[in-house]
Recover the amino acids of this structure.
């Protein structure tokens, strides 16, 4: 990269959790500057957010449309390069579309949109404009997840038979304060969140992780969704039987009423020769279980020798030596950094490396939306199996 | 107990894994002696087994019928008190029935029979004869499993919402030597094993554990079974969506092709107020996760003070101080000891304590067989949900 | 073995913790019967203990001297074969000596005696009488400890450089009820316990474990002992710098005031090529950490292939398949079983196998007593290093 | 903060591990910009480093003296605010002194200097100039370490009795490539590293952590240092018995030849009422072990209710919700952010919050150097105890 990229942010005003995460992820490697934002539809909150982020007043905009329009008019060496969209799901499509159509690249939080229809339109825009879109399926940014993917691809485990992926949380075991006050917990509001709370918020992460590591695609599923908490309108728990390409089978569980759980994403994949296990709450460990051998613990950042050498995809996404834990923010930052490297390479007329290109894209976004809609469709059906196609 | 109980064994000749386990479990507490056996239909193997177990030749019998007949004729202070049945599943029903009808009590390995029909007949015989039958669902013998059950019952977690129980193994990832040689891996032979390999061998353990701890009953299920290994006639993997009484939902996974797994039984149960987690491979830990509180680790054998005091069901089944791990053999021995205490109390005209009575019975055996048959029925159905009734 | 061995017990009356452990360990494998005992100097407690253990009244003796004298007069096919000594430390020497001099073998709890002098006299008696003496340093009975020893011996880790062994407990963080009532917590009474509480009770286990696995001997040490609890006369915590043969160094920590710890024995050994780690509270795991390779987790009971094949010393001491945890009682039982196999082989004029002979002996007892005395001597010295010789 | 702080870096040219870590830590929160640097004495490497960091050529300086001199002449709203010193230990004192004497604040990597004498001079300069100096003892930046400190201070564990702190690494189990080639592994070169390799590089982290959490001070120690690797001139392993103020005792182990270990910092502290345990490789867990209660696992980022409420010092240093792991880079960033908040508050004439002021200072640096020198003195002495005073 010959210069830092300039980022504009849509959403992410003060006290918005995910906006702060995106900023840390963007800043960490010193390759991206925040230069402008449309942080909030509340002018005062927008202004205070801009000030807290040390932005000049004239680059804090009242809404994303104004931001995109005004920035597009700034000199090329001043205006933003891309936008980061950290708004509720229903406000992903609009800014993503407008940004790309005005020559800006896009990072967007997941799920990409609130419908397959919107998702496919974004896919079409990406194809048409040639712009770069990154989707922040964070868990695929961890080095040991990338190591897992590389080992599966290399045939280390033989043909894959079974995939168990789960994402239990407990934070919606009760109505949130916002729900209780009748206010806007937007995630639990179908108008802002989409067709499924639990699948949109976290199930889609699990589905992406399963397909990312295994290289397989879900082709049929059988789902049971539940809304356990009185007074909640959307589902907060779901379990899904899965059938994958190449004969693999699996189970996906996503739950926000698993009281006492934090963010316990975990995946286990078993092939003919062995299995692997990875968990978000212990992310620098990749447990490898081969038939007839002691279990192996691959750990981030080690300079193992052959045949254990860590994949270039793992090492490219590691910042510090083994034993010094890297966490979720670094996984998030890997998506931003790879996106930035890709955008920069394209600007400079270069081909991005395979490692730089390794971040979730609009195709993952389309599959994610299709996953949500297929789960809901299956849940409402009495047929055991519902076909998953895009 | 005023004297040791005398045990006769059916099956369990030399090199039979589960017979040896039963004997260790029976011997450990010094309350049971092995006095006779019908160890094998092969006379030489039977004789050698008897000798290795230090039995007199005249109490090593050629088959269970002879054993039961001859022992019944011995003086009351010599003859066996009960039989332990450790044969393949298809040879559980016969000796159990004959023993009870001749005045002997019974310990039988799981699954209790090869059909619901047989199971119900045993249930009827127990009712008619008043004999005691214990079924060795080992995992319910662990102190921390009993603690979990007690805490659920006490309302510690509030109303139960979600149950995830799993039993992954990897040892059938390939055809076994016996299968390959065309020989008798009896578990994989429907004639000896029953309608499902994976559910009979291990799934039924998982189902029992879920119902034992939660106090709930499965009422509907949706199953997907698979036979992954070429050349195997029976299923070796299965996943099941569950619906329980009182509105709880769950997932049960049983797999023998999860390559690299050993005996990784694990259960997680979530209620309105918190959740619990227990695993066979780390059995002295009960992880308790309450909303708004640090996680707690209840450990076997501790003299916690109120409100953490361990249940009498946990302490009754613990032999040594905390930090000194007890394992599967002790859990197994708890079933034998509680059975022995119950049988002795009954003989002495006393009422067994609630703690002594806490072992799996013929009712659990009937539900176990119904679980297997319902899973198979669901697997073969295109309907999403299949009713589980007994 | 052609017959069961017959055991007499010295100490271990009702409610005595360690006596019950010894009995379970002796019974588990069906190779040893309890035939007599001198359980208590209190006649009523002795009688009740005998009754609870289903012994005939005439083989419940008032004291060990009477027991040894009377049993020696019984017919050869009736009298006990060996005694198990589970009394306070000060009553180890007497019965051990008398038993061996009357032709009986001996299992004795650790520490072997209360002085090096006594220990050396027992060593002389063993040599003179040719009897077998086993010392219950339990932790060396675990399969994964034996695997560790085998791997060190095979040079897997190269030359050993560093040994860290620790045994933290918390149960003496306060005066015990017995101490508070001015009564007999014999462990904390120098007259019954010996020169050091913490080193006699648990430090000697740690020292034995370090020497057992590493094959090295402590040659110099530097100790700091403390009595932290007001009202206690003996030490309850100690830390020791160690120097071993062949240039290895180490640290040994033993503590009974590490509040909240249970029995957290742990050892780590590092060589030129890699290290190992083992812990009592997770005893079926042996963590192997080789330079440049993923960590490996060797687990009890697996049929690994070369070069990972488990040592015959590990498999000989394993009863059940991998993933089914074995615990402290099985480790204890391994000492009894190996002792029984050795005694039986000798009686039958056979040479015991190397695996059977693998239990702690009188030599370990002598080193244990010398360790305790050297630690106390070092503690009282202002010199940094105190020589450890026997 | 009303504006970002401007940082100049001394050392940290391309491929220098610790410089990159400092930059990530400084950038992450968007409160610090890198504006200049003296990255290397090699002009080409310096230029390339500056370019890779997107700096203008005129702010890449040939050495720290030039940098400090030139920056001091720049306008107040352009020039750097502070320097970050990431050079070998022998080049800490010079730039720190010069910076403070020219009105710049300082972040310096540990150990602060190469002698107590230098350290005390820096302490005097801090006092004289009123400048702010932060020392990057990273482990004290973790939220759960701060929680531990707060709980000890609140008396949660009662009077502290025992502290065990350890820092095993394995990366110096062999001569490094630089050592082998006769080149400059500066850590192992006494001229650049100071009096002890193992204590300067990692032992001083362990000592700081023990004093930071416990609030106690080491007053006497007894050390044994070793150089295990042939061809290495400095020590690579050390064990130390400790005596603290208020009667506590402890053990400190630092080792760089613990083959297979990564950065396994771990501390355990035991008081009259309970104990705590924390480890760098699992940093979001604080294990709390109270007498008579189940173990508790305090985890970063949770909104526990009273009496479990996390300390404001823990929450101030946490960025994301529980279950999303934060790692070493975030701990490092906490030092930078707290330093930046403190410096900004002072500039703005405000009093920094207690939470902002919670970073290691020049006083910690003086104690760290005294620790190293006292350990070396003890190692060379035949007396058991060497007094630790500053």
């Amino acid at each position: 990269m010959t210069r830092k990229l300039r980022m504009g942010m849509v959403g992410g005003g003060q006290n918005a959790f995910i906006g702060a995460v995106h900023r840390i992820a963007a800043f960490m490697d010193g390759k991206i500057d925040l230069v402008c934002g449309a942080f909030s539809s509340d002018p005062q909150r927008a202004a205070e957010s801009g000030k807290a982020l040390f932005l000049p007043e004239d680059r804090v905009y009242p809404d994303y449309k104004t931001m995109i329009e005004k920035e597009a008019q700034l000199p090329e060496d001043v205006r933003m390069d891309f936008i980061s969209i950290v708004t509720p799901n229903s406000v992903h499509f609009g800014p993503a579309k407008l940004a790309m159509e005005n020559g800006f690249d896009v990072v967007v939080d997941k799920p990409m949109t609130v419908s397959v229809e919107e998702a496919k339109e974004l896919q079409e825009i990406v194809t048409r404009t040639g712009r770069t879109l990154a989707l922040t399926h964070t868990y695929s940014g961890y080095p040991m997840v990338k190591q897992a993917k590389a080992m599966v691809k290399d045939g280390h485990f033989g043909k894959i038979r079974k995939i168990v992926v789960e994402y239990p949380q407990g934070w919606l075991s009760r109505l949130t304060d916002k729900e209780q006050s009748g206010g806007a917990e937007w995630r639990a509001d179908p108008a802002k969140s989409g067709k499924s709370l639990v699948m949109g918020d976290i199930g889609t992460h699990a589905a992406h992780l399963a397909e990312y590591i295994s290289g397989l695609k879900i082709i049929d599923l059988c789902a049971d969704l539940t809304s356990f908490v009185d007074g909640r309108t959307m589902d907060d728990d779901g379990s899904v039987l899965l059938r994958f390409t190449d004969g693999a089978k699996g189970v996906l569980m996503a739950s926000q009423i698993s009281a006492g759980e934090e963010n316990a994403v975990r995946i286990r994949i078993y092939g003919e020769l062995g299995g692997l296990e990875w968990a978000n709450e212990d992310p620098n460990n990749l447990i490898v279980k081969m038939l007839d051998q002691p279990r192996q613990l691959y750990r981030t950042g080690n300079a193992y020798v052959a045949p254990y050498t860590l994949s270039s995809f793992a090492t490219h996404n590691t910042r510090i030596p083994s034993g010094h834990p890297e966490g979720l923010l670094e996984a998030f930052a890997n998506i931003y950094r790879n996106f930035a490297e890709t955008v920069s390479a394209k600007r400079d007329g270069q081909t991005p490396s395979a490692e730089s290109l390794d971040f979730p894209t609009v195709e993952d976004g389309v599959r994610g939306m299709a996953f949500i809609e297929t789960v809901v469709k299956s849940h409402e059906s009495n047929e055991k199996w519902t076909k998953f196609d895009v």
